[in-house]
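Lecture notes, part 5. Sequence design as translation. It can be helpful to think of inverse folding as translation between two languages: the language of shapes and the language of residues. The source text, in structure tokens, appears below.
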């Protein structure tokens, strides 16, 4: 079967990275059934031939208007599709969409009319925000990391930057590789515009956000970068939980040690 990836090594490589990360999400136990989503802005990889490809779906509303997305192209995981399947067959479990001139609707152009993720409004809102501020970030990820979600069931952890500081203090790498920390978004209906709006409000200060009692979202230069940020936070959550399981409250790195890291690694906060 013909694919948009045929004879396009750059695009194939990018989608290959998406498939690789989808496999990690499944292996980590963060992607039960259809859990999680991936959306990647591939506009820079679109050639004239792709730009001329006809729609293979009806025009579909996004549910919100996103002015910076005019003429953009995204690879999106399909709704109800499994990450473990996407890992092997990315173009059967996801599709490429084109945003139309009204910035409020899209069509699917390849390979098959696989309907995009139920969290499309949140993902596209994040990309719209990133483009609006001139960011070079191309990827957004939503996943269900067990330990981090468990921590979001405890109210004291949901106050601003309580989890950020706790997770940063578990191991030096977490602050170095997730330097903007973890934003907290109160519970909202999955797939809703309200959840999308709350998420972009937090993106001003954070690359990774926690959707209370649901999961996390991350944005990054590419999908591997987005995944790595969640992975280091998750590692810290596991260290914390392991210490608690051994019956003690972990000391955590001191504020001085964290400050020393911030200076040595030239971190923003
Ligand atoms: O798409 O995780 O939040 C599956 C989800 C929805
Ligand atoms: Zn989810």
């Amino acid at each position: 079967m013909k694919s948009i990836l045929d004879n396009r090594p750059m695009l194939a490589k990018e989608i290959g990275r998406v498939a690789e990360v989808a496999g990690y999400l499944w292996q980590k136990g963060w992607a039960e059934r259809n859990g999680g989503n991936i959306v990647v802005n591939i506009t820079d990889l679109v050639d004239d031939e792709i730009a001329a490809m006809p729609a293979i779906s009806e025009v579909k509303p996004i549910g919100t208007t996103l002015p910076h997305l005019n003429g953009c192209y995204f690879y999106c995981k399909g709704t109800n599709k499994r990450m473990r399947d996407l890992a092997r067959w990315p173009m059967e479990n996801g599709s490429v969409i084109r945003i139309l001139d009204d910035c409020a609707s899209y069509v699917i152009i390849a390979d098959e009319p696989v309907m995009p993720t139920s969290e499309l409004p949140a993902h596209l809102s994040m990309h719209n925000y990133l483009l609006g501020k001139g960011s070079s970030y191309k990827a957004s990820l939503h996943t269900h990391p067990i330990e981090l979600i468990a921590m979001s069931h405890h109210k004291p952890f949901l106050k601003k930057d309580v989890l950020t500081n706790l997770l940063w203090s578990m191991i030096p790498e977490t602050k170095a590789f997730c330097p903007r920390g973890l934003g907290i978004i109160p519970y909202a209906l999955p797939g809703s515009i309200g959840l999308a709006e709350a998420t972009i409000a937090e993106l001003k200060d954070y690359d990774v956000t926690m959707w209370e009692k649901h999961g996390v979202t991350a944005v990054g230069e590419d999908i591997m970068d987005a995944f790595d940020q969640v992975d280091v936070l998750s590692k810290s959550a596991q260290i914390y939980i392991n210490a608690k399981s051994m019956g003690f409250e972990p000391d955590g790195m001191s504020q001085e040690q964290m400050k020393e890291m911030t200076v040595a690694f030239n971190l923003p906060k």
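The translated text above is only one of many valid answers, since several sequences can fold into similar shapes. The chain has one domain: 9-264.
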